[in-house]
Amino acid sequence: MKKFLPIYILLAAALISFLLVTFKPKPEKVESPRLITPVEYITAVAKDTRILIESEGILKPKVESALNAEISGTIIALGENFYPGKYFEKGEMLFQIDPLDYEDRLRIAEFELAQADLFLEEQTALAEQAQLDWDKFDFGEANDLVLRKPQLKGAVTRHASALASVNLAQRNLEKTTFQAPYSGFLLSRSIDLGSNINGATMIPQAQAYAAGDGEVRLPIDEDEQKLLDLNTNPVKKVRFYHSSTQSLIAKGYVERVEATLDSQNRLSYCVGIIKNAFPKPSKSSDKENLTDFKKLLQRNQFLIAEIEGGIVRDAFTIPDNALRKDRFVYIINEDNRLSQKEVRIIHRTQDSLIIDLGVDTGDKIVISPIPYFVEDMPVEPIKLQ
User: Fold this and answer.
1) CATH number for position 255
2) Which of 37, 109, 347, 382 is 20 to 30 A removed from 332 (C-alpha atoms)?
3) How high is the pLDDT of residue 293?
4) CA-to-CA separations, 243 to 29, 157, 237, 289, 304, in angstroms, rounded
5) What is the reported pTM?
6) Is-contact 354 49, C-beta < 8 A?
7) Is the dihedral of CA 172, 174, 175, 181 positive or negative?
């Protein structure tokens, strides 16, 4: 019996192990918590929305030109305002060319005109006498030579030429005093006292621009031009902003649309006008167009523009980050599950979209990033404050 005792012990241990494994209580299944993505949303609201087209451009004077004398000579005097940066009035003397040669030419022309006057009087008298003599003797029809018509015609031509020479000499003499063609500001000059100038040269003797209105060429694409309807109704309000501070600096309007497309970027240009952008420095009241008198506009200043277009009825404005795949938005339904809707975009701004189809008032539009989209996926909606 003792020799079987170890066997009994092993059998008993095996039986206990079997019973423990067989009747071990099964662990309860614990379901892992289901993850729900939190998303921010805005509520779609339909309202009448004015289209605002954003553009940019360089402020230029409406009139900017080279100032060149039409005659040659030596500069003997400069006007007190013929210096870069200074303002001058229309008709003001900017520089004086030595007039002596032109005075002599006028005297010579006047002498030749006096001679032509006498010659014309003589030929007229002779022609009249020839006609009287012919009529007196009744020789029939006279030819032109007998009546001295060629001589009289030559005298008339000589007189007309002499008169034209006097007028030309008079105009050239007047041009020795170069007068400002408009009121404005001098940009630069290449002449000084003692300079010899050639009226036939193409090199500008001075550069200037007119005081008064300024203009800005504003590029717009084809879709924007349609929204603005500039071809049939070109007068649109424009607000101009400082490029650095983004502050409103002036108001204006669209004056015209250029007739051709830019060959490089295929854009068209409308021209915005700022009334009295370059005012006369003596009149502070001329700056009334500026929103802040301290913010003076400058030639070649870069400006941001906002052109007022028409009004779109019952449109929705949403942030640009709400758009998915260029034509969809994600909507949270009543069960807090996602769906997507295709929308029609009628205008894009720098950070928002204006849509008129695809969204209904009250729709909860997702604006949070969604790593992946699954139709009907549950989300935790968070309304953007």
Assistant:
1) 2.40.30.170
2) 347
3) 39
4) 64, 65, 19, 18, 6
5) 0.71
6) yes
7) negative
